[in-house]
Design brief:
Layout (H helix, E strand, L loop, with lengths): L2 H14 L23 H18 L2 H12 L2 H25 L7 H7 L3 E4 L5 E5 L3 E2 L9 H11 L11 H12 L10 H9 L7 H17 L2 H11 L6 E2 L1 H9 L8 H10 L3 H4 L6 H20 L5 H6 L18 H20 L3 H8 L5 E4 L3 H14 L15 E8 L6 E5 L24 H10 L15 E3 L28 E3 H7 L2 H11 L1 H11 L21 H12 L3 E3 L4 E6 L2 E2 L6 E4 L3 H17 L3 H5 L10 E6 L5 E8 L2 E9 L24 H13 L93
Parallel strand pairs: 1-5, 3-4
Antiparallel strand pairs: 1-2, 5-11, 6-7, 6-16, 8-9, 10-13, 11-12, 14-15, 15-16
Amino acid sequence: MGRAEERRARQRGGRRAAPRRSSGSPSVAGGDPSATAIGAPSAVAGGRAAARRAAKGGGRGGDGKGRIRRLFTWKKILGTFLGTCLLAIGAFIALYLSVDIPEGNAAAQAAQRQSNVYKYSDGSTLARDGEVNREIVDLSKVPKEVRNTFVAAENKSFYNDNGIDLKGTARGVLNTLMGKGAQGGSTITQQYVKNYYLSQEQTVSRKLREIVISLKVDRQMSKDEILAGYINTSYYGRSAYGIQAAAQAYYQVDAEKLTVAQGAYLAALLQAPSQYDWQAASDTGKKLVQARWNYVLDNMVEEGWLSKAERQELTFPKPKEPKPAAGLEGQKGYFVALANRQLEDQLMKQQGLTRSQAEAAVVDQGWTITLNIDKKKQAQLEKAVKAQLTSKLDAEKRKVDADIQAGAVSVDPKTGKVVALYGGVDYFKHYTSNATRTDYQPASTFKPVILAAALEENAETQSGKPITANTIYDGTSKRQVVDGNGDKVGFAPENEDDQNYGDITVQTAMNKSVNSVFAQMGVDVGMKSVLDVAGKLGMDVADEQAVPAQTLGTMGASPLQMAGVYATLDNHGKKVTPSIIKTAEHNSQAVELPNPVGEQVISRESADTVTSVLTGVVDDGTARRSVANNPERDGQKVAGKTGTSDDNKSAWFTGYTPDLVTSVGLFGEDDKTHAQTKMYGAGGEERVNGGGFPAEIWAAYMFGVTKANAKFDLDTDQGAAVQPTWTPTPTQEPTTQEPTEEPTTQKPTETPTTEEPTETPTTEPPTEEPTTEPAPTAPTTEPTDDITLDPVRPDNDQ
């Protein structure tokens, strides 16, 4: 045995033998020096290891964490991940092999489309809409530059990808699983597959089938074939399917005659056809579609499909007026358009569809939609507009008369039902619905919102006094508005006719629509708070700036929106979102519709106080002649507000009884260009005021359909509806002059101003000759008709 072997043997033997303990080592058994420590070193080592484990984990907890670490080692995690990936790949391969490209052709799809049926609230048929407008064209007949607009809009990598966008698709599947709805990311191939072979439903299984079919379609069809299928099956709005129908619907040319600019518009349109239809779009919609149009052309320059010089020469190609479908004449087309829009909104919320997907799911899909429109009320509204407005307009005598557009919406405040609607003279003659357009200023009909915000926020004046119906404000015209520090904010609005009122109550300021008072009140409350309350009440103010000028109602609003705002006030502060749809059924399945009446958005006391104050506008202010003194009034209690924009481009009266709310707006729209224009001189009137045509239409309609002697149930001790009328002391000497003081709807809080009147009321002549008889000593609930407190025409407003 060599030395190396001996050494290895000794080492082996040493490991087996128990080494001796040194004499200095502590004994194992109770310190007994004679005790032998069998295996002591390993025991010591084990003890040290246990101590280390105890120090790290601390008893059982340490053992638990140790087990977790042993369970989730990086090797096991990696193995699990790879195994999951293999399973997913295997499952996808199995799916790929099992899913075939289904049969599909545009002609069959067109044949399968069904008309939508629209009914009145009583179940009688109102209209049928659904004539399919589709014509397939060969891609060679579409100019190459126009084809490229669609690629630039939807899928710049179209000619190089394999038919799917993995990142976008993964995001779409994840959003579907999480219930976040549909989002962008689909390629042109995927959109074509969805339009041509599948449905618009948002489910994971449908999305997976879309991926597989898209991959197979991309392998079996050329890019040009896919692009042709895409532009020939897409929905462009105006009941147009395919690029040929769209070219005719929007520009009245064949697809082969489309310009690059027109093609870019049609490509942009696919994102939201109805919202981007220029003739019906809101200001926001027009901005969005122009931005989309620019985006398309910029992408074309980026891809080298359009030169910068050519791009700079292009101007936005406004589409032509649409040709409404048969059966939608009169007001019917306006009903159908609003019903479709509200149904689309609901499908977007419930199923996570995009706007274009929702439109495709509604148009020509065999829906049966029952509306809330009441036939009797609708007939009365149309009759009122004709009697009080259109019959008095003569475009041959006065050119401006051709520029007057009227819109109105009537809502039941207890249910939120839109029971009557006036969108324009005829859907065939004026495609844009004046009932839903939001491009005109609501003007002074916004003032009640400012008061509601003041009450809701418990706001105070600059001097620290609570803002109530009796609070005194300075009504001087062009008075500089100041902030909480007493600094001027650079806003000094003029009252109508530059009228000065001096110190007046909030109630009187509302009655006379005094701009200077509400401008200061808005700053006292805080304009952000004012806009917040406006949003709660139903106005679309998300993109509005919180600046003092908004107190004049300079934002856009529609009669539909304003009817909802005032319906919320009428409903004691519970949110009312007007709905034209009663039921919507498809394939024997009804869509669950939201309750138009929602939660309490402002307190009942705040809402009721505003209602109380607004009764003064009717009985003692700018709507007095047309509404309060209307011979058709049969004891109905009325609250409301007039509004006239500074440049007389819009005039409003929005008012309500306890059981019905109606908003009427008049809008100046150039008969040829459709641009906003002034209404001065229309109907032979020097100026179209809210207390004129709008209030007259309102009264002719409302007093024919509302309950007589209905009263407001108000929870407030403020305002004209609950305060006794103050009767001035009669003069001692007989006089032939009209008194200069008008009874207010609350007792004055200070000595009446001695300011002399600057104008004698002319629109409200006394009903009888003045006498020397003393005035009644008992207070009355209605002001007399022949005297006014403030020196201003009772039917003027701002």
